[in-house]
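chain below, 296 aa
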Amino acid sequence: MNKLVGLLFLCFTTHALADSVSFHLFRSPLGINWSTPWNMTFSTLRNSLANTHGKRAFFISHVFVEVNCDSTGEHIYRGQTSTDDSNERELIFKKKYGMGVMFHTYKGKFEKDQSILNDMAPYEGDSRRGTFSALIRPQTCQRMLRYVQEYEDRGYGNLYSGLQADPLKGEGAGCSAFAVSFLRIAGLEEPFLNEWKNIIDVPKRFVGGPLTGKNVNILKILTRPAAKWSNKEDHIHLEAWNPEKMLDWVNKTHEHVSNGGVVEGYGVTINQVKDSREVIVDLTERATPTGSFWLI
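prediction:
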């Protein structure tokens, strides 16, 4: 066998047989701009009106988790979303929550397997889609399966929570916090995860609802284009995992590696299906933690 072909076969076989966790990432139709309160509000509203031609819209971006334990033949897809987008619209336009919708807990829907595959299929090869994958130890893969089963058994999948919620504290989760929790319970909180976050200080004057007891008409935000995230006034500090930043990291890392670059500290391989890119990081040397998953 040609040496190059043999090497490629070996790499493919190793990846195919390794246990892994993957995040399937979906950008919003037009992108969410986090730079200022006005830009975030306007871009979110603009995305909610976008025509996605019958496909699931992912208006504010989305993440699905795939856990593939080849070592035992167990393979699952999971995701976290709300049951009804109309609830958020009611909070914004009728109940005047303003940016309080970012911190609200909604009725959740725990997404599974075939429904996820159905939602992902129309985006095969689309530039709005990308994948982060990590090769992991079989023990780590089993820990992830136990975690997600406990998460469901405790009813946390019924809580689609605000951006500040921590799923490991029993607060429910948004889709991205839910995804990252798989890495957290597996001891895989790698430095590059910091690039997946938005860190902002949300002025309380823009936050309505129970957190502040205020009514905040959305026009109060949209008529203040010069307003900024600021800790120089009464505010709520927020650190939120952003699926669009996750996808940006995948695309940037994919381009770096395809141009001959090296990612220090990790074995990295890449795949691509049309305009959808995947980055695969080898974390099989990371030890599997033991003990409770929960911080409560």
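Residues 138-153 form the longest helix (16 residues). Residues 107 and 245 are 26 Å apart (CA to CA).
thats it, cya
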